[in-house]
Specification:
Helix 6 links the parallel strand 4 and strand 5. Helix 3 packs across helix 4. A four-stranded mixed β-sheet has the order 1-2-7-8, sandwiched between helices. It has a four-stranded parallel β-sheet with strand order 4-5-3-6, with helices on both faces. It is an alpha/beta fold. 38% of the residues are buried. The longest helix is centred in the C-terminal third of the chain and has 19 residues. The chain has two domains: 102 residues, Rossmann fold (3-Layer(aba) Sandwich); 165 residues, Rossmann fold (3-Layer(aba) Sandwich).
């Protein structure tokens, strides 16, 4: 039906805006029409807050989502004053990739530095800091993490966790299937994470082990991805959009972005090289330093 409508409307250039699924589906549409003697030029713009598209360095929207997620948690974390032994889990989008979670954590901790705390009134910066970051790329030893976080809870009366929605999913699925639960999937075959509910699973595990008296699971996903673009993203958008237009006029097909496999050069990358699920690189120095600082609390 989509192919028929494009032919009927004499569309010869199609710009797609989305992640790997959106762009590769558009490529399939172009190939289908080519086989039926109709030339449709498709140039995609990589828009996903997960920042998980091979081989693109930075996808559109991710910078804004990280900043907005930090603002979201900056408000939510104040709930730690409303009860004792409180566990707050900030669940952040990222099915396969932890980039958004760690970028949000970095932005939040940068904002935290600008806040003045009054230790004489037992208002400690450490109580507002992040105490754990859980992402798909990092193995999670629940027992060790609980033992470490219990010390934080005992000392500061709260624990703040930044959780990527894809963290520990294999373990959660295995546990659910063992108990006879049906795992629901979306149209692309992805596990429906809203039904799987990783935030609730970790809340149950941590809450029991940490003797938490109050547990909050707060998801910033829709808040973060619905925000207007910040300056960093606007700069990317204008550069990518201009290059996409130029690429289409040159009759190129592909997705426009900074190519990690070509010296981060802005390019129209062939659809055959576009793939989702790119993991966050946990060997980066800034990430290791942040984790070490958090684990020293």
């Amino acid at each position: 039906m989509a192919a028929q409508q494009l032919v009927k409307d004499n569309v010869t250039i199609l710009h797609t805006i989305g992640g790997d699924d959106t762009n590769t589906t558009a490529a399939d549409l172009s190939n289908y029409l080519r086989k039926h003697n109709y030339l449709l030029n498709v140039v995609g713009l990589p828009k996903t807050i997960d920042n998980d598209v091979y081989p693109i360095t930075q996808t559109l929207g991710a910078y804004t989502a990280a900043e907005q997620g930090a603002i979201f948690f900056e408000n939510i974390v104040n709930e730690n004053t409303t009860s004792n032994r409180q566990l707050i889990i900030h669940e952040i989008m990222g099915r396969h990739c932890g980039w958004l979670t760690v970028a949000t954590a970095l932005k939040y901790r940068e904002r935290l530095k600008k806040i003045q705390f009054i230790e004489e009134l037992k208002i400690f910066k450490e109580k507002w800091d992040i105490h754990s970051i859980l992402i798909p790329e990092q193995n999670i030893n629940i027992i060790e993490e609980c033992n470490r976080l219990k010390k934080v809870m005992d000392k500061y009366d709260c624990v703040n966790v930044f959780l990527s929605e894809g963290a520990g999913v294999d373990t959660i699925i295995a546990e659910a299937e063992k108990s006879g639960e049906k795992i629901l999937r979306d149209a692309f075959g992805h596990v429906r994470l809203d039904e799987l509910n990783p935030g609730k699973w970790f809340a149950n595990k941590f809450g029991k082990e940490l003797n938490a008296n109050k547990i909050l699971v707060q998801k910033s996903g829709y808040f973060a991805r619905s925000a207007k673009s910040n300056k960093e993203d606007l700069d990317l958008i204008f550069k990518v959009a201009d290059f996409a237009t130029e690429s289409a006029l040159r009759k190129q097909n592909g997705v426009v972005g900074w190519d990690e496999e070509n010296n981060n050069k802005l390019s129209c990358i062939d659809f055959s090289r576009i793939k989702g699920g790119k993991p966050f690189d946990i060997s980066q120095k800034w990430y290791i330093e942040m984790i070490n600082q958090i684990h020293s609390i």
